[in-house]
Amino acid sequence: LGLDKAEEFRLQWMTDGKSLATHARDKQSRLGIFGVDLSSGTNAPLALTPEPFNANDTSLDHPVPVGDDLAFVRWIDLKEVIVLRESYTGRERILYEDPAALGLYAPSASPDGKRLAFGEVRLGEAGAESRLMITSLDGGDAYPIFTTTLPRQVLAPAWLPSGEGLLAAVATRGEGGFELVRIDLADGSVESTGIQEPELRLFQLIINPEGNYVAYVAGSTASSWEGGPGGSEAWVAEGLLSSGNTKGGRTGEEGDRFPDSRSQEEGGAS
User: Fold this and answer.
1) Per-residue pLDDT at 249 exceeds 50
2) CB atoms closer than 10 angstroms to residue 67
3) Which of 40, 83, 103, 143 could cross-link 121 (Cys pair, CB 3.0–4.6 Å)?
4) Do the beta carbons of residue 225 and residue 207 sit within 8 Å?
């Protein structure tokens, strides 16, 4: 890529299908979000962290393409906000800010490019809570579609191809284990997909445009230098979003995931 990772590479396809966006540091030590042209291998900054770098008020992260533009989380005046950067003008405008927010993360653009889903940890009346938020890109009000109380937290929202709902993970903060759930935007109903990981931590969740595959990356909460096993696995669930199919997992039932090294060791197909 011709770039150095910031904390980790979070690669996102741009909507042209010919370039990537990633949070990284370039060879001039500038920290920001960069676009990488796959045909030439060249990169260019899409948004830079102001210098001198101060993690308390100038960092940015979680880039997600929205049409030709780019949404991401930026620190402004000691708080996190979600901004939209216009690709042609370079101008940024704030899409969402909340004085009670303790953290904003994982923005995800709807298939039609008109809405943004994202996670928020904030101080509520009953204490700290985790919310899955929806906002429109035309300046409409944001609203929560799912709320839980910490240490339970909602993670990694991914839009269904229809735009009528999302997949997300519900996990216990600071511990391993998560469950993938399906959230309907019309009535806010939450349904388990049947995929539960009792020990692994979720890193990324993706649905392909046709909706016939769901992929996720999960790994140990304890890295190898912390005495844990380290490493991560990429899983694919086929048919998980098919009509009437809300079950999946290691059982070999519908929505089964592959490849599974354990089933291969037992003679299963790779």
Assistant:
1) no
2) 15
3) 103
4) no
Q: CA angle at residue 134 from 21 to 131, to 5 degrees?
A: 100
Rounded to whole angstroms, the Cα distance separating 269 from 109 reads 35
pTM: 0.77
Q: Tell me: pLDDT of 243 over 80.
A: no
**CA dist., res. 219 & res. 225, Å (int):** 14
28-83: pLDDT as tens digits:
777 788 888 888 988 888 888 776 666 555 567 778 888 878 888 888 777 889 99
Q: How far is residue 5 CA from its own chain's centroid? A: 18
